[in-house]
Amino acid sequence: MSAAALNTSSNAKEKSLGMDMKIAESGNSSPRVDNCDGPKEPNLTGFPTEVLQNIFSFLPYSDLFTSTLVCRMFRDNASVPVLWKRFPIPAMEISQDDGLDRLLSVLKLPRFRKIQHLDLNRVFMAIKKKGGKNRPVLAVQPPDDQSKFLEVLEIASKLPLTWLNLSYNDLPSVFVSSPQFLSRLILNIPHVDLFATCRGASSDFIGHFLNSYTEASALHTVDLGGCDLDTLPTNLVTKLNYLTNVALEGAFMTMEQARAFLVDMAKGSKIKKFDIGCELIVDKDTYSDVFENLDPELVATALNNLEHVIYNKLKDAKGDCCDFPPDLHLERFLQVMGRNTKLKKVEMEENNFFHVAPEVVAKAFNNLEHLEMKPNPYNTSAQIVATLELMAQKTRLKYVLFEYEDLSWLNPGLVARAVVQVEQVDMKCSLSRAHVNAILREIGASSRIRRLNLRDNDVSKVPAHVRESAVKLLRREGGVVKLEQKGKRLYLKC
After folding, report:
1. What is d(CA 414, CA 74) in angstroms, rounded to the nearest whole number?
2. Is 27 a residue whose pLDDT tops 70?
3. pLDDT (tens digit, 9 = 90+) per residue, 396-436?
4. What predicted TM-score, i.e. pTM, was given to this entire model?
5. Which residues are CB-neighbours of 182 under 8 A, at least 6 positions away?
């Protein structure tokens, strides 16, 4: 991205944040509170309250805020809490610029009574003391700030939240003073992010809410990335298998904990999405990937018992992929995936596939439901060709995204035969005229494809009868197909 583009993006974000700050801190007061009495001409003030509020619901928050400045009627109708339920209160910026007192006053505004998403990350950060490079020691915040942060959490506990971000906050000190309250808060919200809330500090509050977790708890998604979990009892770590979505990127564990966690996962886990990201789960003794220190069969069996896995081992790795040693854990994982898996989607681009046999990669990818084929220096052309060849014959895939600069190096017929056997295909790449023609010609009565997005690829050079036949078949069973003419170019989008 160019420097100019970066500056434009940065300025846009700053402008958006500035508007959010202005809106959040404005309160309910308005410099203009006149009645909407004026000339008797058709205007919005004559609409019923329900209709006016429905109109306001389509406005961006900047315009909704402006509406509150028009008159008393607009202010009252544009300030109803249901219209502000997804407003992104910039809590971190407010607390760091103006203090927790100001944040408290904002959260108490009537318009925010039905807020569903609340991002409180970094509003009460622990003070770093001198410690190890990887695991710094943290000091407790001043008592006055701690009581104010606790009041912030008490307000949050009374809101109808579906997502709460408490990442980077000093929760261990809050737990010491209010252990039961903190656990109840976490367990009563469906999605809670707790990234780096106990790095170099006690993880007792995590153990407490895991121990208190039951099937009746609202919590189903938790992010414990960057947390020291290695001091927790192993039986509490395994309780993570009771949740639906778990993120552990950069968390610390012992081998014993990781093994027990995966053993239970292999037997039967409720986890559907497991996010390890690119900062791996760290073995607290060796500071290496803890899964790499376990039996490859156990890791492969456990991860294939989930629906969605994010696991990238080589993020920002330097060197030629052929110089890296074979990844035995990855190879075994793909072998199990190709044979018997519950996985529907994997995000594992940053892994060294180079030494894995093409047929193993092909079977694994075609046993998924969702596949994103992107430029990857760790994939070989033979693996990509094998994947497409099997896709053309037999695949479980329902959605495929092709995200390459171009596919000119691939045989057009092979690409076409593969594409038409997948229900939804998104071609986010440059296609040659031969590829476009081949794909549209290949669409027939026996094709599985129902939705095809060719994006910015011109279909005007395809014979009209071929194009019309493809469009007709794509529209079967109610499919929506658009042909957009722009100058001499014609685009097909679904």
Report:
1. 60
2. no
3. 999 999 998 888 899 999 999 999 999 999 999 999 999 99
4. 0.86
5. 153, 171, 174, 175, 205, 208, 209
DSSP state of 194: -
Query: What dihedral angle (degrees, nearest 10) is formed by the CA atoms of 106, 107, 111, 115?
Result: 140
H-helix segments, 40-99: 49-56, 61-67, 72-78, 91-98
Using pLDDT thresholds of 50, 70 and 90, give the confidence band for residue 4: very low
Q: Are 186 and 192 in contact (CB under 8 A)?
A: yes
Helices 179-187 and 143-157, packing angle to 10 deg: 40
Per the model's pLDDT, the better-predicted residue between 139 and 436 turns out to be 436
DSSP H helix total and E strand total for the chain:
19, 18
The CA–CA distances, whole Å, from 265 to 104, 247, 310, 493 equal: 41, 14, 16, 41
- Residue 205 CB: number of other CB atoms within 10 A? 23
First to last CA, the chain: 29
How much is the average pLDDT of 84-109?
Answer: 94
List strand residue ranges (DSSP E) for 319-461, in order.
345-347, 370-373, 399-402, 424-427, 451-453
Q: What is the DSSP letter of 282?
A: E
Long-range contacts of 461-466 (CB under 8 A, 24+ apart): 461/433, 461/436, 461/437, 462/436, 462/437, 466/437, 466/440, 466/441
Whole-angstrom distance, CA of residue 359 vs CA of residue 491: 35
pLDDT the model gives residue 9:
46
- Tell me: the pLDDT tens digits for 364-391? 999 999 999 988 888 899 999 999 999 9
Residue 431 sits at φ, ψ, to 5 deg, of -110, 145
In whole angstroms, give the CA distance from residue 216 to residue 200. 32
Q: What is the rounded average pLDDT for all residues in the chain?
A: 88
More confident residue, 79 or 166: 166
Sheet holding 308-311, edge to edge: 117-119, 163-165, 191-193, 221-223, 245-247, 273-277, 308-311, 345-347, 370-373, 399-402, 424-427, 451-453
Q: Which of 85, 56, 58 is nearest to 68 (CA)?
A: 56
Q: Is the pLDDT of residue 167 over 90?
A: yes
Judged against a pLDDT cut of 60, whether residue 39 lies above it is answered with no
Residue 98 is encoded by which pair of tokens? Answer: 């103006």
Backbone angles phi, psi at 402, to 5 degrees: -100, 115
User: Dihedral, CA atoms, 200, 208, 166, 346, nearest 10 degrees?
Assistant: 90
